[in-house]
Amino acid sequence: MSDWMTVFADPNVQWILFGCMLLGLSSGVIGSFAYLRKQSLMGDALAHAALPGVCIAFMLSGSKSIALFLIGAAVAGTAATFGIGYITRHTRIKQDAALAIVLSTFFGLGIVLLTQIQHSGNGNQSGLDKFLFGQAATMMQNDVWIMAIISLVLIGISTLLFKEFKLLSFDPGFARGIGYPVAFLDQLIMFLLVVAVVAGIQAVGVVLMAALLITPAVSARYWTERLGFMVALSGMFGALSGLAGTFISSTGNNLPTGPLIVLVATAVFFFSVLAAPRRGILSKLLLRASARSQARQEQVILQAVRREQDR
Amino acid sequence: MPVHPLTIQNMTVAYEKKPVLRDISFQVPEGKLIGIVGPNGAGKSTLIKAALELIPKLSGDAAIYGKPYAEQRKLVGYVPQRESVDWDFPTNALDVVAMGRYGHLGWFKRPGGVEKKLAMACLAKVGMSEFAGRQISQLSGGQQQRIFLARALAQDAKLYFMDEPFVGVDAATEKAIITLLNELKMQGKTVLVVHHDLATVQEYFDWLMLLNVELIAFGPTEQTFTADKLQQAYGGKLTMLDRDGQSALITSGR
Amino acid sequence: MSTLWIILTGALVASTCGIVGCFLVLRRMAMIGDAISHSVLPGIVIAFLISGSRDSLFMLLGAAVLGLVTVFLIQLFHQSGVQSDASIGVVFTALFAVGVVLVSMYTKHIDLDLDCVLYGEIAYVPWNTIQLAGIDIGPKAVWGVGLALLLTILLISVFYKQFKLCSFDPALAAAVGIPVALFHYLLMGLVSVSTVASFESVGAILVVGMLVVPPAAAYLLTERLSRMIVYSVVIGCFSSVLGYYAAHLLDASIAGCMISVAGVIFLLALLFSPGHGIVFRKWNRRQQLSS
């Protein structure tokens, strides 16, 4: 009992808890737009694509500055979004393949650069792979402040441009028709996604960052048919996962934070799949059973009526 | 007593909660060109898909020439909606038509010279011989539809299901298609066509099915294509204009 | 000799992935390779924990089982209404998270390096050989990937028309009596087998890249499926040869260089393909405008 109370008392853990909650919140919000635009795996691609940017930042500066890493990752991520957009717009290659192409070539290039750095005998490169696999436990007060600012900006923009993003996700052709700067808004959403990914990578790592963008949004979709509610719910699920995952990890069983956050998010997803009203499996089974019995009853009545008429 | 090409008995199909088709029963006579019309969401495509066992039925039976579809596949030709496939697929027109023979080839046999020759003949019937080697994404909507039709011809069936073959095609193609359908009818084949343009129903079809979740009417066009039956199928969404003694029909709303 | 083995392994991986990848690209399932290569992690760890050895056979088995579980779960969630890409994302990240947790739970007792499992190093291929009756018969990776390639060629060539029709028009395929679901799982099984057979020896990223980049480049170069497959294999093999020497020159990761070369070839196809290249299309448009 007192054991987990002490967790909350530790100021370091407080910061990490707060940071992961914010991360979950902001990626949940921006992830729901990605989901509706059928770009769920964009986060995965962008997270992988950040690697060469981080490497180049390191090679140019020679230092392990987190700020430079973030900038490098953001630049590479933005370049990746342009690449993906260009391939899908100008060739017959569909989005999924474009994502996979950009993901693997950027990451391959990143590995080439990484081995270059390692072979060049630079002693202090070990931070690079930590950066990629993520370590929430090393989050400092400063990182959490950066996190807070980033989330505030992400959520602020999403709120301000809510109706634009909504229309863009639903019917980009119509949005263009009524004079929205569709290309700009498109790129803005991508950029927000890049920011969310870059902010999250060092906490939970490349692969698991993708989960924070996808899983809360998919879970939220199960509960509601309204976009505003869905975005809020997705943010809430994300925040909850961040909190709970960090909490479990910090209660002393020595498990990594990132995967635990993802597993909590997955648990929320499973619960949604099973129990959500209307879309959930349980309610669908009930509906189907009732539809079946209703259809049978109707048939019996119809046949009776017909027999009546035939007479 | 002759076996009917298609017999549907008490068929009900439901997605989620609402039935899309409710307790449908009918028998299709042989050698007729039959139109299936009804408002959006009436279950026209669903009817075809359920008859072909592409989607599960809640209840009821469908029989092709008196037997379940699985035993009679070779007697049936199918033209899906044109948008249902990716026209960027790397293949040419002739190859798509040859796909019509895949069902007859069985598990291991590959399409060869015989199939190619047959596919060429079918392409010629729809007037597309010179496009045999053309990549399918470079064809117009009407040409793509003709390719699909040629593929159905290659299936060499006795009963054809066509899902909206007239959508997005030019007038010339529409004429070519209807001529071809009439030829099939002359050969004693049975053709069911999902259709949406009420103005051409009387001209095109000799039998008509009116569908709106339930079966409203099914019979010779002159008996089924009447104001009160159409009203029944389309509800209040139908305005009839009688112009020059010809009835033109306009569907309003959805 | 070791050069030959490495290039051969690379070419075998490229061929296997290049064939299967064509169907993935055409069916809009390109990200499935990425998903499978991550989600097999818990399978590998569990196989390791049960068998207690780093014997590849057990790990392969564990990975293959998880590969199929992944595909099954993705299909399940997709059918219950989740968009297919989101369904992929949820499933593979969750399984990967389970894998990482398992690794960190048991990492004190066992010697299983996460980097090594996930980002296997093709440079070590020649030293991991198989002994048969006391005779060295070559690297394990060559045998493993070679078998996967044989299986792929066999299945795809025997059932070519089924795979093709299921990719182009699944509704018609079902209507003429081809078991569409069976061929879906057969294809996914092939993806799993090629991924699993390849990635332990050459690294996940090489597999993911080879599954998509050469087929996509080939897709821009031809209008026939059969040629697309051939081009894809050729591009993949060429990338592995060139990538190996580039890596030698730059003293960098071999797998990374192979992917980068494939990426460059894709870029060239994107720009200069006769039918679909951007440069030629622009040029054609200008010609039409001036005439």
UniProtKB/TrEMBL annotation, chain A:
InterPro entries in the record: ABC_BtuC-like, ABC_TroCD
Predominant localisation class: membrane
Localization annotation: Cell membrane
PANTHER family membership: ABC-TRANSPORTER METAL-BINDING PROTEIN, METAL TRANSPORT SYSTEM MEMBRANE PROTEIN CT_069-RELATED
Membrane-protein topology: Multi-pass membrane protein
Highest taxon in the source lineage: Bacteria
GO CC terms in record: ATP-binding cassette (ABC) transporter complex
Function of the protein: This protein is probably a component of a manganese permease, a binding protein-dependent, ATP-driven transport system.
Protein name: Manganese transport system membrane protein MntC
Organism of this sequence: Paenibacillus sacheonensis
Family, per entry: Belongs to the ABC-3 integral membrane protein family.
Transmembrane segments annotated in the record for this chain: 15-36, 66-87, 99-117, 144-162, 201-220, 227-248, 260-277
CDD domains with a match to the protein in the record: TM_ABC_iron-siderophores_like (cd06550)
UniProt keyword terms in alphabetical order: Cell membrane, Membrane, Transmembrane, Transmembrane helix, Transport
GO process terms (BP): cellular response to iron ion; response to zinc ion; transmembrane transport
Lipid metabolism keyword on record: no
From TrEMBL, chain B:
Pfam family membership, one: ABC_tran
Keywords: ATP-binding, Nucleotide-binding, Transport
PROSITE patterns: ABC_TRANSPORTER_1, ABC_TRANSPORTER_2
Keyword Cell membrane: no
Key word Secreted present: no
Sample GO molecular function, one term: ATP binding
Ranges where the ABC transporter domain occurs: 6-238
InterPro entries attached to this UniProt entry: AAA+_ATPase, ABC_transporter-like_ATP-bd, ABC_transporter-like_CS, Metal_Ion_Import_ABC, P-loop_NTPase
Family: Belongs to the ABC transporter superfamily.
UniProt protein name: ATP-binding cassette domain-containing protein
Species of the source: Paenibacillus sacheonensis
UniProtKB/TrEMBL annotation, chain C:
Alphabetic keyword roster: Cell membrane, Membrane, Transmembrane, Transmembrane helix, Transport
Membrane topology type: Multi-pass membrane protein
TM region(s), chain numbering: 6-26, 31-50, 56-74, 86-106, 141-160, 172-196, 202-221, 228-247, 253-272
One of the GO biological process terms: response to zinc ion
Main location: membrane
Cytoplasm as UniProt keyword: no
Database matches in CDD domains: TM_ABC_iron-siderophores_like
PANTHER family for the chain: ABC-TRANSPORTER METAL-BINDING PROTEIN (PTHR30477), METAL TRANSPORT SYSTEM MEMBRANE PROTEIN CT_070-RELATED (PTHR30477:SF8)
Stated family: Belongs to the ABC-3 integral membrane protein family.
Protein name: Iron chelate uptake ABC transporter family permease subunit
Lineage: Bacteria, Bacillati, Bacillota, Bacilli, Bacillales
